[in-house]
Amino acid sequence: MSRVFLLALLCLLAVRAGQAAESAELFDGEWNTILSCPNSNGALGYSFEFPSLVKHGVLHGEKGVKGRAGWLQLDGRISPDGTGNLYASGLVGAAEMAVGHRPPGTLYGYHVDVQFTDNSGKGQRVEGRPCTVTFAKKPADQAVQHEFDIARPEIVRLNQLLNAELVHALAGSTGTPSPAMRRVIEQSSSSHLALDDTRVPLHERLIERQRLEVIAGFKWIAATIGHCDEKEFGPADLLDDRSRLRIKSVSRCHQRSLDRDQAAIHQLNLANEASVVDLKLPPAFEERMLVEARRNMARQDAEIASTYAHRRAFWEATDNLVEFFDTHPAHLAANQIVMEDDSDRSAAQDLLSRFIETAKQQQ
Predict the structure, then answer these.
(1) Are 19 and 296 in contact (CB under 8 A)?
(2) Quick check: 16 pLDDT over 50?
(3) Fewer CB near the terminus (10 Å): N or C of the chain?
(4) In this structure, which CATH number among 2.60.40, 1.10.10, 1.10.1060, 2.40.128 belongs to the domain 29-140?
């Protein structure tokens, strides 16, 4: 596998475990919500407490039974910076609490500007009487988020190590691990830590999950380096029987490697997804991480398929070029290929142009 191609894969092998805790869905989870409106314009004040759920960055809270007096719902998207513009809609419950003493069951609605932090949030009603909304993340979600926060620095360090290891391996065309990578491998093999062992603190299991992923990524890349001959060939090689045999052998090696590696990368992504379930996270966190893992897998599969299509096209063009010269004699003149039969010149030029075009697509 070429160094250029492996460098292009660096971004595809980078960190995934830490992304779920730092994504636009940072505020996902269950929130205790309190809506309070003081006395205003002849209407009595009130305060309601109800649960809200943020899922994939979208909040939905609801009180009462939909369609009946006193029902209320709160909806809207929370941005990655914690800001949001929610919309509250409901049906008047008691006339004395409604401005203008509107009868029970009357539909109303207004906007609420909100600001969330990791574990709390607050908002102000935009239109009409002054009202406030407060949000408090449920303790269980706070505890899980805290475990992610503890694990994050080590997860980042492991990802940086993997990237450095890949660059080092490519520079030396060897899959030998550095001392730092050897320590990571030894730590994992000696820890005997099971990801589904909930007796172990979650941050330790998150780190072990990332450690296993880094090791798997390194082992895959180490197995691919130097697997196939990377020696370039020139015009004279196309006219030599032995050289053409070598080129065909190299092409077959690379094409088999493409099939094998594409399947291996997909398996790494499937293992990444399965390890989320192994962690036994609270449902909201588990679903969030599974969505992130599946989104990454779909993106990476598409990018790998596109990249590999270019490489397959190159080796197909190589095969076609070599096979042509198996049956069409030519000679070199001033380091240029000259066909013995002038009628072969156009076909040879087309094959050479296709070969050059596919080679450029990989650069």
Answers:
(1) yes
(2) no
(3) C
(4) 2.40.128
